[in-house]
Amino acid sequence: MKKLSVVPYLLFASIALPAQEEAVLRDAMKQIGPGNGALGKKIAAKDTSASEDAKKLQDLFKGTQAFWQAKSATDAVEFTSNAAEIYGKVASLIAESKWEEATAEQKKVGANCMGCHTAHREKSPDGSWKVK
After folding, report:
1. For position 19, what pLDDT does the model report?
2. With pLDDT > 70 as the criterion, what percentage of the chain qualifies?
3. pLDDT for 70-104, tens place per residue?
4. C-alpha angle 96/32/52, rounded to 5°?
5. CA distance 123 to 100
6. Quick one: how far is CA 103 from the chain centroid?
7. What sign does the CA torsion over 115, 121, 123, 129 have?
8. CA distance 56 to 49
9. What does the pLDDT average to over 39-51?
């Protein structure tokens, strides 16, 4: 009877799983930038459907927390938690038609995002970005 070796599988899993997790993070980030821009336009137009957009952004940030928890990056976990909380507030403010407050709250996200990007992103020679 042949013995199956688990070493190749474990090696593949140790490489593939972080890559898959990073792909999930990248996908979320690619949605967040344009989503935040669209949210700002909807808030300016006093479009109540913006509340759903804010909730989607909140969910995207909640989804990224697991990636950073696995990397033991407590600051990034805090950044993603803060962003999710901000978008939750924005959704509530929109639902209450508090447009100016929603705009002010949404603007807080940019500084929060920049903190995480500065700490956990680096530019590759080819111009792309990678997670530190």
Report:
1. 67
2. 85
3. 999 999 999 999 999 999 999 999 999 999 999 99
4. 30
5. 35
6. 19
7. negative
8. 11
9. 98
- pLDDT band, very low/low/confident/very high, at 130 (cuts 50, 70, 90): confident
The three state secondary structure string of the chain is CCCCCCHHHHHHHHHHHHHHHHHHHHHHHHHHHHHHHHHHHHHHCCCCCHHHHHHHHHHHHHHHHHHHHHCCCHHHHHHHHHHHHHHHHHHHHHHCCCHHHHHHHHHHHHHHHHHHHHHHEEECCCCCEEEC
What are the Cα distances from residue 55, in Å, to 19, 62, 95, 129?
A: 27, 10, 11, 27
Which residue type occupies 131? V
What whole-number distance in Å separates Cα of residue 3 and Cα of residue 1?
7
- pLDDT at res. 16: 43
Tokens representing 97 are 């038609």
The CA distance from 38 to 52, in Å, is: 12
The two structure tokens encoding residue 86:
């901000």
